[in-house]
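For the sake of transparency, this paper describes our internal protein records without simplification. The tokens are whole numbers drawn from a learned vocabulary of local backbone shapes. One such record is reproduced below, unchanged from the form in which we store it.

. . .
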Amino acid sequence: MSRLLLLRGVAAFNAGRFLTAHEIWEAVWNETVGEEKRFVQGLVQLAAGYLKLSSAQYQGALKLLTRGCQTLRTYPPLYAGLRISLLSEASLTVIRQLETGRTGTDIQLPQIQTVS
């Protein structure tokens, strides 16, 4: 898995450029196999979910965020230099907010934290 591309996707995600993050991580996904491929799939799903959220497509966002969290929950809290547990926890909060009808500006978007 390309660490450089993975981190470029993180930078795009953290800047709220979810389509760019999705495209970068999809390129990584296409070049990855096994356990790492599934991990990147979870990131792709979350990026797509937050893209839907930013477009006020709340049902689609809920579906993709849920899938992304389900995919990433099988990984340790720190994986590939990313703090996955923090991302998952923040995304689960967003899911709960969507389930209770909160939308748009009421929702705080997560940041992906990295470890050197």
